[in-house]
Amino acid sequence: MNAVVVGCGKVGYAIAKYLSQDRANNVVVVDRKDVQPRIEESADVMFVRGNGLTRSALSEANIKSCDLFIAATNIDETNVLSCITAERLGAKHSVARVRDPEFSKELEEVGKALGVDMIINPDLQAALEISRLLRFPSATDIETFVSGRVEMVSFRAAPNNPLVGMSLGESFRSVRIPVLMALVERNGSVIVPNGQTVVEPGDMVRVMGKPSNISDFFRYIGMPATRAKDAIIIGGGRITRYLAAALPGGVSVKIIEKDIDRAERLSEAVPEALVIHGDGADDELLDSEGAGSADAVICLTDRDEENIVAGLYAKRSGAKKVILKINHVSQTLANGLDIGSVICPKTLTAFMILRYARGLMGSASGSSMKTLYRVAENGDEFVEAIEFEVSSDFPGLGREVRDMGIKPGVLLGCVVRHGSIIIPTGNTVIKKNDSVIVLANNIHLTALADILGGEGAGAR
Amino acid sequence: MNLRVVLKMLGNVLLCLSALMAVPLAVSAAYLETGAAVSFLAAIGVTLAAGIPLRLLSKPKGRRFYMKEGLVAVAASWFALSAFGALPFLFSGQFSGYMDCFFEAASGFTTTGASVLTDVERLPRGILFWRGFTQWIGGMGVLVFMLSVLPRSASLVTLMKAESPGPLTNKVVPKLRDTAKRLYAVYIAMSVMCLAGLLLSGLPPYDAVLCMFGTAGTGGFSAVNAGIGSYGSFAAEMVVLVFMMLFATNFGVYFLILRGDIVSALKDEETRFFYGAVLLAAALIAANTLGARGGSALEALRCAVFQAVSISSSAGYATTDYNLWPSFSKCVLVLLMIMGASAGSTGGGAKAVRVLTTLKMARAGISKLVHPGAVRTIKLNGRNVDNAVLTGIAAYTGIYAILALAGTLLVSLDGMDLVSCATAVISCVSNIGPGLEAVGPTGNFAAFGALSKAALSFLMIAGRLEFLPVLALFVPSIWRRNAVA
Predict the structure, then answer these.
(1) ipTM value
(2) Helix (H) or strand (E) holding A31
(3) CB distance from B44 to chain A under 8 Å?
(4) Phi, psi (deg, nearest 5) at residue A230
(5) What does pTM read for this prediction?
(6) Chain B interface, best mutation among A22, A46, A49, by max B CB count within 10 A
(7) A44 and B175: CB-CB below 8 Å?
């Protein structure tokens, strides 16, 4: 697929990098600043220097044969306008990044009317992700599939966790709750577990299954499965505004903001929250506002360092759940600090677009991709969780999983049929209209048929 | 620096080289030259013996190529190519000593075309073929070729940047591998056209192939002692003339044409400047030689145009002994040697775009004196040239001057006259081939001592890679694991 990315800031850079990792994608990056050495050294893309709004720069980027156009400059209006220009010049699909909370809703409608296929808002995505985590604070990450019917939830195994020291086969038999142990991350490397894998303290374990079963499972291993009732948000930026709007009623929210003007505007926009003017990195303020006893402390300032420091302090003083936003710091590093959940808006956005791109590529081959999450990443290695809807032309229809010849590196996670969830075994049969969730290790799947073609069996 | 990843790349290069040596081996076999065939077999054996362990035993910890690794890998590859590419010459017994063989191989790969041989016609045809083939390989670059076959890795773009001539190297399509493939596709297509032209103009097939190698790579090795003038074919001379110019043109222009953007192709500033400079030089020489010597005006023009094109394209073919020309014409030729061809072509020299940009910088500097408040940006094809690129061009100019002066000093130890020494060095740094006086079109480099040949070989490789990769080898910090500078 030919993709053109306009704007090589944080988001554009991440999108270009992830898209170009797939051999089948040809990516051209357009930016007014000369970022050529930086982008070309780390991603196999072509760089065009120029204004993404102009015909000359776009035609140099070969816009005529462009399948997916992504506008990710830091100006909302430019993004929408350049999507329109690109579509006029021949781009087949377009995605615009729009961030401003004041008019992102209106703009979405305007964009749709003008033929922009997707409006993406990194800050809104981050806020939605945080509000999901607040419903299930024990989880470090939550990914949802099949419109919420299946969840994949990760937790860090503490030394007193009953699963530690047990092989997964044993724990499955003793727990007796139908959830699938999908992945284990240990010291930055990813293990696709089998029955013999033993959970060690400090491992990040991902389980997949029905939300109610996952709640049961968390109760069984001694982690609370109740939602957060009060939250302290440090930093009153865009994500905070979206988050305040997205939180369900009954959650009491305190917002700490350093800038008095911003704090006043915030109290106007979010009347139900208590806005406090003060420095979120000030430990006395955090103590007096009860950060140590809060259900959740969410660090959303513009500075990664402040978020990490405030998060660390909140965690030390006893906050039950800490969520921090990072923009520049390596996500692997931030996860390794073990403070809490780490939210990175640029990667969230990049993966939403990646999912869209992959969906476009797979749409020709029938089975359609519904969701995609990159659940682990380390250098060039990655694991993705992808949901497909099975169409009638899937070559593995009607065959048992063990006879399908699923590629090594692919794990069949879950099958959803008529709303009920099947954890597949060797003799499970995949039928038309099933939703299938697969985990793929270092393989770029675009269609469900891509999982076939190997000798190894993917299911247990 | 990650030395293992460099060694592995070096192993790849040697394996690639041994595969390339199979071509002249087949030629030797076809001409039933047992001696030459044996030397190729032996050379392939030695190259494999060095390449396979490097390829298999280097287990790099990370596969990532940073700029450092890229620079060192490119420089080391080119020295290794010349060192191992010299083996068939050595085993054939036609050369006196390994240094001569190394010089000849370096001259071939860097597409210089300077030779230590006085009589090329007594060489076995297989060996002569290899000598020509090295120029064709070196023209577009070995690493660029490898990039078109190796599995992709984004960071390998540093290899292409270090090997491709010119201050600005751009991809023509998003994927590095596809870019390398397209470069070679254009190179091969143009080579085939050149070969067809030479065959049509009546050259024997073997000579046509060798002549094509010299023209396409802009090396200028000839298959006959008397050079291409001795074929007596005006048509062949014209084919060589046209293709020397085409191969000395920035290949970026051809991609513009292939994309249908003829307007931008015709407006390309570097190409206009290059063609203009060559035509001006030819006109000056023609006027100068016409007054100085007898002969018809047409003859003078024909020689002047051919020589100007041949020297500036860095091929270095000669149809006339320009040593007999008046000083002014010779001086013009030396200036053309320094400028050389366009960036992104197979030719050598400082490149037209650097000369053009330097002139623009000079103009901006003068204008700044007159209007101290003037804001001047240096533009190329309507776009600002980045300051980093300008600094790079200034650095290139400085390094060129320093290396040329130091080289002349070293070579003058052999006691030859100053013009021969200086033009030999300039000719090698710019990858032209012949110089003036003793190293002129009828002379050769045999008279130089081993030290001079080593120095000149080094300058050829340094010049082909535009200095920085080779000089990087001498920066101590590049060899340290956690270097600061």
Answers:
(1) 0.78
(2) strand A26-31
(3) no
(4) -140, 145
(5) 0.84
(6) A46
(7) yes
CB atoms A27 and B158 under 8 Å = no
B173 and A40 within 8 Å at the Cβ level: the answer is no
Q: Which CATH class is domain A347-451?
A: alpha beta
List of E strands, A192-273 = 204-209, 230-234, 252-257
Q: Which of chain A's residues have a Cβ under 8 Å away from the Cβ of B158? A: 41
Tell whether B71 lies on the interface with A, counting CB pairs under 8 A.
Answer: no
Helix then strand then coil, in percent of chain B rounded to 5, is 70, 0, 30
- A429: which strand partners? A400
Helix (H, G, I), strand (E, B) or coil at A155: strand
DSSP class of residue A11 equals H
Beta carbons of A45 and B66 less than 8 Å apart:
no
Round to the nearest angstrom and report the end-to-end CA distance of chain B. Answer: 12
- Neighbour tally for B381: CB within 10 Å: 10
Work out the burial of residue A154: count CB atoms within 10 Å of its CB; fewer than 13 is exposed, 13-18 middle, 19 or more buried: buried
B153 and chain A: CB distance < 8 Å anywhere? yes
Rounded distance, CA A35 to CA A43, Å?
A: 12
Which tokens sit at A238? 């865009």
Instruction: Judge whether A126-130+227-343 and A347-451 match in fold.
Output: no
Cβ proximity of B27 and B125 under 8 Å: yes
Give every CB contact of residue A83 below 8 A, 6+ residues apart in sequence: A69, A71, A91, A94, A95, A96, A111, A114, A115, A116
The CA-based diameter of chain B, rounded to the nearest angstrom, is 74
CB contact under 8 A, B66 and A49: no
Q: Specify whether the CB–CB gap between B143 and B13 falls below 8 A.
A: yes
**Would you say how long chain B is, in residues?**
485
Judge: A44–B158 Cβ closer than 8 Å, yes or no: no
CATH topology of domain A126-130+227-343: Rossmann fold (3.40.50)
Contacts of A20 in chain B (CB under 8 A): 154, 174
> Which of B157, B177, B383 has the CB atom closest to A41's CB atom?
B157
Which residue, among A41, A378, A380, would best test binding to B if mutated, counting the most B CBs under 10 Å from its CB? A41
Distance CA A178, CA B408 (A): 82
The structure tokens listed for B222 are 């000839």
Asked whether the beta carbons of residue A46 and residue B174 sit closer than 8 angstroms, the reply is: yes
Chain-chain contact of B386 with A34 (C-beta, under 8 angstroms): yes
- CATH number, domain A2-120, options 3.40.50.300, 3.40.50.720, 3.40.50.10170, 1.20.140.10: 3.40.50.720
Q: Is B67 on the interface with A (CB under 8 A)?
A: yes
Spell out the domain ranges in chain A: 2-120, 126-130+227-343, 347-451
Q: Do A27 and B174 touch (CB under 8 A)?
A: yes
- Phi and psi of B48, rounded to 5°? -65, -40
The CA dihedral of A280, A285, A287, A288, to the nearest 10 degrees, is -140
Nearest to B442 by CA among B410, B420, B472: B420
Per-residue pLDDT of chain B (485 residues; tens, 9 = 90+): 778 888 888 999 999 999 999 999 999 999 999 999 999 999 999 999 999 999 888 777 766 778 888 889 999 999 999 999 999 999 999 898 999 999 999 999 999 999 998 888 889 999 999 999 999 999 988 888 888 777 656 567 878 888 888 777 788 888 888 888 899 999 999 999 999 999 999 999 999 999 999 999 999 888 888 778 788 888 999 999 999 999 999 999 999 899 888 998 999 999 999 999 999 999 999 999 887 666 788 888 999 999 999 999 999 898 888 898 999 999 999 999 999 999 989 999 999 999 999 999 999 999 989 998 888 889 998 888 888 889 999 999 999 999 999 999 999 999 999 999 999 999 999 999 999 989 988 888 998 999 999 999 999 999 999 998 999 888 888 887 654 43
The count of other CB atoms within 10 Å of the CB of residue B134 is 31
Q: How many angstroms separate the CA of residue A57 from the nearest CA in chain B?
A: 12
